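User: Can you fold this complex?
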Amino acid sequence: MDQSKTVILGLGNAMMSDDGIGLIIVQKLAEQVHAPDLEFKVSEKVGLNLIELLLGYDRAIIIDSIITGERAPGEIIECSLDDLPSSPRLRCPHDADFKSAVELARRTGLKMPEKILILGVEAVDIFNFTPDLSPQLAERMPEIVAEISTLIKSKL
Amino acid sequence: MGKRYTIDPITRLEGHGRIDIFTDDDNNVTNAYLQIPQLRGFEKFCQGRPVEEVPRIVTRLCGVCPEAHHLCSAKAVDAVYGVEPPSAAKKLRELMYMAHFVHSHIAHFYALAAADFVMGPTSNPAERNILGVVGKVGLKIGGEVIKQRSNAQKVQEIIGGKATHPVCALPGGMSRPITEDERELIETMGIQAEEFAIFTLDLFQDVVLKNAAYVDVIKSPAYQLNVHNMGLVDANNKVNFYDGKVRVVDTNGKEMFKYSPKEYLDFVAEHTESFSYLKFPFLKKIGWKGLEEGQDSSVYWATPLSRLNAADGMATRRAQGHYEIFFKALGGKPVKATLATHWARLIEQLYAAERWLELVRDPEITSTELRADLTGKIPHEGVGILEAPRGTLTHHYVTDENGMVQKVNLIVGTTNNYAPISISIKKAAQGLIKKGAKVNEGVLNMVEMAFRAYDPCFSCATHSIPGRVPLIINLRDREGNILDTYKSL
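Assistant: Here's the predicted assembly.
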């Protein structure tokens, strides 16, 4: 394990069902995973606002919901910044997309993580206004957290 | 055989919007629809909760304009209790809100609008983004965009208690004052915000207005819309974002009416269409006449442009100067060029920065007199209205005598603009997609420009990564069979 500074960042909306799963997972991980120079953050921000959350870290692991429509609920999809389409969410409806925000920060001399790993959790419902996860994700929650925890430990 | 072009999702905007363009056998556009997803269950979520909790819940409706929802909700809750916040509390709320406007308008211009003009509407889509813009206008500007947005966010955090989802507004006032040290910091940031707003207006002048080709695009018939204009105004009929009456000015520039928040149901009603679950607000006194333009139509828009059209001027000196230049350059009021909304937005950005400085220099701004007395007040029903960056925002709550929410009705900024956006898309598509013309990404981006001018924000409460490419265009026959597919990354 090296001593680089890492942030585990959970994104989502706590009141939009499965959209909040990134927040829930990171809150649970913070209780289970302990390592030097490892910080946990959750945020409901988007776009250029994410720059400040990543500022100064060497590595970042971002956990968010994702809907591909092709994966099983709760399946974890691992991708890098370059794997994201050019204008996706991790994009904001009226802001820069995530990749562009990070690149803009880098070009203007701000220290952004050299390594950014994105873990998307296949969601079922992100359109209902409820603090509850969909039954499919709620049922699988313990194994999703365990799987991500193992994955993260292997990356540290 | 007729075709259907589907733009899904709309690039650089909400990942879940979709535009359907239908053409006849000769590739003439017969219709165009904007379809968006519905967020379900908000009213049910609020029912039975104490109304004072709602301002903190509504911030979750939108990751883009939580401050607008928070303050509009707070105003509605004030009305539910029948109280007026003390003057200092109103000023503190408005100060936070000016920072939000600066934050929001910078993002729209630099991250979304500028690329179409700095890089060109049909330029390489891989470069038609904020990185392309700063690559062309200078990295220093990119750094300044980040800094100014960060400053504005900091001001919202100082006053709001949290950076993204403020918790500061309480029934009848605000939760805490700002200190003199905080005031000084906010003033310093306000001075920078004003300078940056002036710089951005100069940039717009150089890049857009001095380019005859772009001015032609702005003035071209495909990007004109002749509808009524809505905007909040103060007692002098000047633009105001936080308080006042809603003024509606017709297609000829004549005032139709003004209403206070509690009267909104007498003036605005909502129409439903079979192709969409989103309602189309319209002017009730005229009645729904369809998705049509013109003086007889009940369609209105509520945008930075309509706000300037609906007002008699700006309440701050520099913004007023630009307001006069704007209308002189575009042939007088009301301006009907949809793409001029970008220019109007920058004038608003300057107004917000100037108003920010006025408020932070007000001797009352550090006052601790921030709460109205709610003793003996029986909650019942209230409406709050303010201007969100993308349009007039209305919150309406009904509670029982214990303040528990029974009903919620919201008309959000973009909902006001659903009808004009739909008409604008159709007109742009009709102007740009013709028989024999190749429909490529550049053409479709120019259709999107008609849409993007509104800074629309739909199911923005969600944050999910889309597992889809940003632009898919399906050519379909009338039966929905895919004839061809374009993908644009």
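Chain B touches chain A through 58 residues (CB under 8 Å). Residues 8-15, 460-477, 485-489 of chain B have pLDDT under 50 and may be disordered.
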